[in-house]
């Protein structure tokens, strides 16, 4: 096939030898199957900010660390240089996460390097050597669904122990290889401790997986793994080998700030309505 513009520099530098075929194109990047020597790998070419359709970057970037105080100030001011640095940081996020999570023992593709804005990494394949299917594309037995759920919950725990949350995890961000599920796509990964929406994103990730796999193993739908692991994480008691039960009893004594804010807003609106009514009566 014709070499995409984003991959020509890698061929010129000898990082890859040939582009074999496109693998997929998403909202964040286009992925190609490439040959590097005798190895078949994949290359992820990130789309520029203007091309991306993902509209919630600010929410995902909250709490991320930026290399250098100058870059952090520029990003905060949203200057032209700051926007450029924000783009660089966004593209580096997945690379950094993959290396960190591989060291932690998580099932993710092995990264081989980041060159000219392109991530070269392992091509996850099935038992026959073809590109592995996504979890959302295959039929499962109840036993397989339970086992995949067990494995994926453990992957989420490993991420959380690294201080990270996937943020966009679903059956379509999981590949199924010969040894089971492999989690992919991390450009939107969020800081568990530094992002105000971290708990919401974690619960959404776990619930997405549970809802999908619960189609084949309905008993999974009565589990509460997301809430359980978040409570342990907040208490500083979550470990990579923590045995989870899937059971969780919410603390009903906790202050519900959202309800309090809503009550305050309702009271303010009621006060304004009464005030307007009094003013109208006085005018009459």
* Element string (H = helix, E = strand): HEEEHHHEEHEEEEHHH
The helix count comes to 8
Strand order in the sheet with the most strands: 1-2-3-5-4
Counting helices, strands and paired strands, the structural category is: alpha+beta
Describe the structure.
The protein is 42% helix and 16% strand. With 284 residues, it is α+β, with helices and mostly antiparallel strands. A five-stranded antiparallel sheet has the order 1-2-3-5-4, with helices on both faces. Strands 6-9 form a two-stranded antiparallel ribbon. A two-stranded antiparallel ribbon has the order 7-8. A hairpin with a 3-residue loop joins strand 1 and strand 2. The protein is globular.
Concise account of the structure shown:
42% of the residues lie in helices and 16% in strands. The chain contains 8 helices and 9 strands.
């Amino acid at each position: 096939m014709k070499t995409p513009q984003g991959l020509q520099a890698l061929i010129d530098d000898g990082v890859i030898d040939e582009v074999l075929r496109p693998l997929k194109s998403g909202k964040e990047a286009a992925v190609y199957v490439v040959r590097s020597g005798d190895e078949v790998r994949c290359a992820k070419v990130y789309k520029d900010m203007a091309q991306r359709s993902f509209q919630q970057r600010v929410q995902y970037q909250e709490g991320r660390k930026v290399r250098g105080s100058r870059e952090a100030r520029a990003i905060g001011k949203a200057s032209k240089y700051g926007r450029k640095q924000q783009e660089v940081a966004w593209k580096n996020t997945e690379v950094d996460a993959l290396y960190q999570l591989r060291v932690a023992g998580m099932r993710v593709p092995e990264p081989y390097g980041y060159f000219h804005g392109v991530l070269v990494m392992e091509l996850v394949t099935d038992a026959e050597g073809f590109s592995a299917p996504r979890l959302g594309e295959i039929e499962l037995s109840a036993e397989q669904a339970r086992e995949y759920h067990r494995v994926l919950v453990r992957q989420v725990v490993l991420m959380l122990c690294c201080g990270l949350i996937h943020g966009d995890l679903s059956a379509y961000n999981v590949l199924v290889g010969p040894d089971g599920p492999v989690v992919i796509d991390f450009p939107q990964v969020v800081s568990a401790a530094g992002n105000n929406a971290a708990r919401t994103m974690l619960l959404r990730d776990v619930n997405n997986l549970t809802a999908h796999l619960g189609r084949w193993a309905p008993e999974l739908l009565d589990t509460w793994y997301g809430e359980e692991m978040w409570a342990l994480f907040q208490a500083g008691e979550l470990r990579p080998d923590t045995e989870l039960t899937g059971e969780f009893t919410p603390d009903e004594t906790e202050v519900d700030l959202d309800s309090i804010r809503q009550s305050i807003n309702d009271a303010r609106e009621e006060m304004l309505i009464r005030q307007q009514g009094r003013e109208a009566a006085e005018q009459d």
